[in-house]
Structures are given as structure tokens and as C-alpha cells.
Design a protein that fits this description.
The chain contains 20 helices and two strands. By secondary structure, the protein is mainly alpha-helical. The two termini are 23 Å apart.
């Protein structure tokens, strides 16, 4: 294909616009994950929950995420990428409303699991959709916007919670119409969720999905609008040629190697990418940030400020990844990130190993070790968001051939959220059994192993057309 002709004819503005609409799903992914942080005391008081019950209230969404990611990946092969994003938007609205009106833990958990289904679906469908509409040469940059949106959603939730609590004086106090502030923290999400739902009706279905379903005339119209009247028909033929020879509908059985009957190696690589992204412990920072820093001697205000700093540096690191992903590639960013995380996690673990226990039973660090822990943790966040944070989603959205993209995303997405749940639930257990240093030592080991995994098993996808993906 003549590259200059392709670049001249494509509609970059339209591609950017529809990609940005899809990334609102990433924003809601982050917002829905982060909003729970400001509501814990309200939930505990409203539902009279013990620590275990409160912990499950917080983590219950992750169960829905695993199911949502797995289901969306498969259903997207039947009903379409855009259709599943629309379903996710509707579920975000139901969850935001229901979480705010819940009167019991069971009711609250039900609505949070619905929110989890939405987050899981959006987490795999947004990068898949962007990958299937964007040209290869800047596909990585557009897909990386997803991680910027996720972190922005998290930061937006933290800021929204802070402002609402500041107005009322506490998450427990009544705010507008006599309802407790923590309920309004959930209801605020109705605004971006509704915008997302309405905006999705203005974007086209993925042309790759349309070709798979045999709707070639519609696919050609979309491809022509994306790439121009000359390149569009060429791309249609390339997509059609990349599908299974008998043009059977995509299914989970496509994930098996036709020669050996075993799971394709590429699927194992996808599972590895999805799992290692969580095994390095990033969500301990997201879900337990304030508790973590208070446990080593920082005040509550200091701990909240550290979370804000972490969010800020995360966005900055994602922007750097956005600038580099289509220049130096995915694989170099992954192994650089793994190396940086292994070093910084090791330094944090070293600092935590020197902590003493004060009269109240809390851990305390010396000034020098406190500075080391804080510096190492924030550098760790930078390395993660420069690499595994965005790049894992970029690769999952593009690395699978057209025939197995939906099924591959279903399996990898389920492992990603299952690992997220496991890390989130086991951190308090590790904290009480092997201590903070031991927990961080485990995450250090996982980061070190991920270096070997990337160098040995991950193949570069920079600049490769989706129709040329092998697996």
C-alpha cells in the first residue's frame, strides 16, 4: 500500500473523534474504580458492616469486572464492539444510580457487581475498538489515550469525592435533598455515563466486525470514511483475506492450535501480559494508598496528598508513553518498565523492612527511610504508567488476528481482572502475615520475572497492520 497516499486520504479528525468517544469508557473505568475510596466510612455506617463486609463491599466490583471482560469479548463477536460499549454505558448508569440508593450491603454489592460488568466490558472493548479503526502507524498513541482516561477518571473521582465532602463537612453528612454525601459521590457518575451513552450513537461500528459478519457494504462505507475512497476498498479486501479460510464465525475453539489442539501460544502471551500487569501490585497503590502510607507513619492528610501526587505523575507518565509507543515500540517500553519497577519496588521493600512498631501498634519509618519509600513508590508509579499500564491494553487490543480478537480479549481480560481481585484481596492478608516489606518483596519478584517474560515471549507489534498479526 502506498503510504503517502494512505496518509493523504485518511480522515484523521474523524478517527480521533470516534477514538476519544470510545475512551470515555476508560474514564468511567477509572471513575467507577476510584469513587469507592471516599465512600468507605459511609458504607460502614449505613450498612453497619464489619471490616470483612466493608472489604467485600469495596472488592465486589472486581468480580463483575472479570465476568464483564470475558463476556464482552465473546459477545462482541456476535453483537459488535460498539454495541457492547453501549451496553457498558447503560450498566454504568444503572450501577451509579443503584449504588447511591442502596439500603443494604447485599443491594449495594449487587449494583457494584453491575458496575464491575461495565468496567470489565469497557476495559477490553475500548482498546479493541480503537485498534480496529486506527491506522497502524499511530494506533498505539490513540490506544494509549485509554490509560490517560483511566487515570483521569480515578483523579476525577478523588477530586469529586473531596469537593462533595468539603461542601457537606463529611461523607456521612447530608448534602442535597437530604441524602448523605457518600450517595451523591456515586450519583455524580451519572453525568459522564449519560454523555458516554449518547455519544456512542454517533460513532460507527468497527469495520473489522462488519466484515466478519458479512456486512461488507456497510464495512466499505465505514472504511471509506476512515481511510478514503481509494484505500477503503483495498483495506476491505485485506480484512476479508485475513479471516479463516472457510469464513466461519469466530468462536472460542479458534483459540486452539489446529495442529496440536492446545491453546495457541499467542493466547498464553496475552494471559501473561494481563496477569503480570496486576502481579506487580499497582492496585495496592490505587485501592489501599491512604491506608498504606498511614501504616508507615504519614498523617491522613499527608497520605491523601501522596495519592494526589501519584495520580498526577501517573498522567504525566502516560503522556510520555503516548509519545513513545509508536516510535520505539511496545516491547522496549515493557522491559524498561519491568526493570524500573523491579528496582523501585525493591527499594521500597528495603525501606519498609527497617520500619519499627510504635506504642500504638503502627509502623514508623525514620526520616531517611520515609523519603526513600516515598521516592521509590512514586518512581514505581511512573515506570508502571510509562509501560505496563497503557501498553498491556494497547497490545491486547491489537496483538490477536482478526478471527480470534474477541475470544482472545475475553480470556485475557478475565485473567486480568481475576488477578486484580486476587492482589486486592490478598494484600491485607500479606500485610498481617509477612508485613509490608514481604508484600513488596513479592511484587518485586513478579516484576523481575516479567522482564524475562517480555524478552522471551512478547513480539513487537509496532506498525504492523491488524491483518498481518500472526498467532
Amino acid at each position: 500500500m502506498n503510504q503517502p497516499q494512505s496518509q493523504q486520504s485518511e480522515n484523521f479528525g474523524f478517527i480521533l473523534l470516534i477514538s476519544c468517544v470510545a475512551t470515555i469508557g476508560g474514564f468511567l473505568f477509572g471513575f467507577d474504580s476510584g469513587v469507592i475510596n471516599g465512600t468507605v466510612d459511609g458504607l460502614r455506617t449505613a450498612f453497619n458492616a464489619d471490616s470483612m463486609g466493608t472489604g467485600f463491599n469495596v472488592a465486589s466490583m472486581l468480580l463483575g469486572c472479570a465476568v464483564g471482560a470475558a463476556a464482552a469479548g465473546r459477545l462482541a463477536d456476535i453483537y459488535g464492539r460498539r454495541t457492547m460499549l453501549i451496553a457498558a454505558a447503560a450498566l454504568f448508569i444503572i450501577s451509579a444510580w443503584g449504588s447511591g440508593v442502596a439500603t443494604s450491603s447485599i443491594e449495594f454489592i449487587f449494583y457494584r457487581i453491575i458496575g464491575g460488568l461495565a468496567v470489565g466490558a469497557a476495559s477490553v472493548m475500548t482498546p479493541a475498538y480503537i485498534s480496529e479503526v486506527a491506522p497502524a502507524r499511530y494506533r498505539g498513541r490513540l490506544a494509549t489515550i485509554q490509560q490517560v482516561a483511566i487515570i483521569s477518571g480515578l483523579t476525577g473521582a478523588f477530586l469529586s469525592n473531596y469537593l462533595l465532602a468539603d461542601v457537606s463537612g463529611s461523607a456521612l453528612n447530608p448534602l442535597w435533598m437530604g441524602y448523605a454525601t457518600w450517595r451523591w459521590m456515586f450519583w455524580i457518575e451519572l453525568v459522564p455515563a449519560t454523555i458516554f451513552l449518547l455519544a456512542l450513537f454517533s460513532i460507527p461500528e468497527s469495520p473489522r466486525f462488519l466484515v466478519v459478519k458479512g456486512r461488507k457494504e456497510t464495512a466499505l462505507a465505514v472504511l471509506s470514511k476512515l481511510y478514503g475512497n481509494v484505500i477503503g476498498p483495498q483495506k476491505l479486501n485485506e480484512i476479508d483475506a485475513s479471516l479463516a479460510g472457510d469464513h466461519h464465525k469466530p468462536s472460542l475453539s479458534d483459540l486452539l492450535d489446529s495442529q496440536t489442539g492446545k491453546l495457541r501460544k499467542l493466547v498464553w502471551v496475552g494471559i501473561g501480559l494481563a496477569t503480570f500487569q496486576q502481579l506487580v501490585g499497582i492496585n495496592v497503590v490505587f485501592y489501599y494508598g491512604s491506608v498504606l502510607w498511614q501504616s508507615v507513619g504519614f498523617s491522613e492528610n499527608d497520605a491523601l496528598f501522596i495519592n494526589v501526587v501519584s495520580g498526577t505523575v501517573s498522567i504525566a507518565a502516560c503522556v510520555v508513553a503516548l509519545l513513545l509507543v509508536d516510535k520505539i515500540g511496545r516491547k522496549p517500553l515493557l522491559w524498561i518498565g519491568s526493570t524500573g519497577m523491579a528496582i523501585t519496588l525493591g527499594l521500597a521493600a528495603t525501606a519498609f523492612s527497617t520500619a519499627s512498631v510504635d506504642s500504638s501498634g503502627s509502623l514508623a519509618l525514620s526520616d531517611s527511610m520515609g523519603v526513600l519509600a516515598l521516592s521509590a513508590a512514586n518512581l514505581y508509579v511512573i515506570f508502571f504508567n510509562l509501560s505496563w499500564g497503557p501498553i498491556m491494553w494497547v497490545m491486547l487490543g491489537e496483538m490477536f488476528p482478526n478471527q480470534i480478537r474477541g475470544s482472545g480479549l475475553a480470556v485475557a481480560g478475565a485473567f486480568q481482572w481475576g488477578s486484580n481481585f486476587a492482589i486486592t484481596m490478598t494484600f491485607p492478608i500479606m500485610l498481617s502475615s509477612i508485613g509490608l516489606a514481604g508484600a513488596y518483596g513479592f511484587y518485586t519478584l513478579c516484576a523481575a520475572i516479567s522482564i524475562v517474560f517480555v524478552l522471551k515471549y512478547v513480539h513487537e507489534t509496532k506498525g504492523v497492520e491488524l491483518e498481518d498479526m500472526q498467532g
